[in-house]
């Protein structure tokens, strides 16, 4: 990139900036991330964290992020936005509360009490990573959760040992495309690790801008690596790449 001032750097949170851990509440950001993002933010048009997390959660799990220059968090797949200390977004859909009320009975009927529920406000995630049979539980949940989501106006977003029931009408690709247009970006890089990041990869490809798609590689998700221009070794590799970028921008 020879024009950093026109670049948007888009980054997923879990599995990209934050190493995957069993408990989502403990997925603290990589210790080097706030510093390298702050250095990057000084050079580029914007740093955009595009995540399925609520922006407030990403900021809680990323102490120091709120001080990164030119940082925007597009959370809840783009439904909710944090910028300069303010959070904005439409009201949560009523379907989320209805689904949350029905989930315990559904899980009991499937004898899947060892899966965990993450209440995200405008979405609810059902995690199987800590269950006795993570892959089997995921397979058994797929159809019942799709049915439950559909009956309450929600869709299912699959991820790494998680099925998230969330409102339709927005995804990371749309969120990133809208942001690139809003900022009149002249180039873009997106870094992600999970299936929800594929739409952002597509947004980069269809933007017509010079762009790079980077996969934060893992054995759990292989499709993203197939579609990436560059694969790095998980969050450690992402940080090393960002450090290289900062070095190159500082020298130019
Ligand atoms: O868009 P992202 O920032 O990648 O968020 C996607 C989901 O990530 C979280 O779950 C994942 O990370 C957890 C912590 O490492 C891990 O335990 C879980 O197995 C992963 O699926 C988060 O909890 C979800 O709410 C996000 O939607």
Give a short synopsis of this structure.
The chain has helices spanning 33-41, 55-61, 95-109, 134-151, 172-182, 198-206, 223-227, 234-251; strands spanning 7-11, 46-50, 71-75, 80-83, 86-88, 116-119, 124-127, 155-159, 162-166, 187-192, 211-216, 230-232.
Give a structural overview:
- This protein has helices at residues 33-41, 55-61, 95-109, 134-151, 172-182, 198-206, 223-227, 234-251; strands at 7-11, 46-50, 71-75, 80-83, 86-88, 116-119, 124-127, 155-159, 162-166, 187-192, 211-216, 230-232.
- By secondary structure, it is an alpha/beta fold.
- Strands 5-4-3-2-1-10-11-12 form an eight-stranded mixed beta sheet, sandwiched between helices.
- Helix 7 (223-227) links the parallel strand 11 (211-216) and strand 12.
- The longest helix is centred in the middle third of the chain and has 18 residues, at 134-151.
- Bound molecules: the ligand O=P(O)(O)OC[C@H]1O[C@H](O[C@H]2O[C@H](CO)[C@@H](O)[C@H](O)[C@H]2O)[C@H](O)[C@@H](O)[C@@H]1O.
- Residues 12-15, 20-22, 24, 27, 51-53, 118, 120, 125, 127, 129, 159-162, 164, 194, 196 line the site of ligand L263DTV3.
What is the CATH homology-level superfamily of the largest domain?
A: HAD superfamily/HAD-like
What is the name of the CATH architecture of the largest domain? 3-Layer(aba) Sandwich
CA radius of gyration: 18 Å
Q: What's the structural domain tally?
A: 2
Strand order in the largest sheet: 5-4-3-2-1-10-11-12
Characterize the biggest β-sheet: 8 strands, mixed
Proportion of β residues?
Answer: 15-25%
Got a strand count?
12
Low-confidence stretches: none
Structural class by secondary-structure content: alpha/beta
Instruction: Tell me the name of the CATH class of the largest domain.
Output: Alpha Beta
How many helices? The count is 8
Helix and strand run: EHEHEEEHEEHEEHEHEHEH
Determine the CATH topology of the largest domain: Rossmann fold
Distance between the termini: 10 Å
- The 3D shape can be described as globular
Quote the average pLDDT. Answer: 97
Share of helix, binned: 25-40%
What are the bound molecules? ligand L263DTV3
